[in-house]
Amino acid sequence: MSLGPVTVRDVETADAEALQAIWLDFAVAPDRPSSPDASLDQIRRAIGRLSGQPNERLLVAVVEEDPVGVAHLRRAPLSPIHDEDAVHVGYLHVHSAYRRRGVGKQLLDTAADWAEQTESTHIVASVAATARDAHRFLARLGLSQVAVVRASTVAHLRSKLTAGGGKAQASNVVAVRRLMRSSRRSTWESHALRASSRPGR
After folding, report:
1. Burial of 22 (0-12, 13-18, 19+ CB in 10 A)
2. What is the Cα 106 distance to its own chain's centre?
3. For residues 39 and 57, what is the distance between their CA atoms, to the nearest angstrom?
4. CA distances from 77 to 80, 84, 114, 120, 167 (A)
């Protein structure tokens, strides 16, 4: 399958259906974790929200007027203690029918352009841990692995924290009781020793 020229631009409201198809392709890929569905209304609201954010962009790669790839860009500090900004690239995905034809490179090239325009010194890309093709693609472009990103629902994390906290609290109560018994024993032994050493005893 030969491709026409690939162009990259910011997403528009009219791209909602194409974006939904790309998201569905992303969600059902065998090397990706399952992702929740997104309705057209949700997508349109997201496009409207992102269009007004100076430090965020949602890019689409377009071939013959059809969006075939997407990348979310976010400009933020490299870390909480660094002055330098980085462009964080997330949800980088090219529709499976258009892979290995330079679409991903064009998306990252646009990310690099934006980084230079905003004087951001680094590009940080996040992809699913199981997305081997994406990892190989980024490695070929010189992006090294610096972190592992894990995710959970708040409810699931809270249940784990509560369960763990209960055990820790019980362990702490036991430890405090032991310490108090030990302290009382030491105090009693100290009093007994002083009493036995008094004259006339």
Report:
1. buried
2. 23
3. 20
4. 7, 6, 15, 9, 37
Strand 66-77: give its sheet, edge to edge. Answer: 6-10, 56-63, 66-77, 85-94, 122-125
Q: Can you give the pLDDT of all 201 residues of the chain as single tens digits?
A: 556 789 999 999 999 999 999 988 887 665 555 555 778 999 999 999 998 899 999 999 999 889 999 999 999 998 889 889 999 999 999 998 898 889 999 999 999 999 999 999 999 999 888 888 889 999 999 999 988 888 899 999 999 999 865 554 545 666 666 666 666 565 545 544 455 555 554
Collapsed DSSP state (helix, strand, coil) of residue 140: helix
| pTM score of the predicted model | 0.74
Give how far the C-alpha of residue 79 lies from the chain's centroid of Cα atoms, to the nearest Å. 14
Q: What is the token pair recorded at 52? A: 């007004």
Cβ pair 56, 75 in contact under 8 A: yes
Name the residue among 38, 44, 57, 33 with its Cα closest to residue 131.
Answer: 33
Mapping DSSP to helix (H, G, I), strand (E, B) and coil, where does residue 136 land? helix
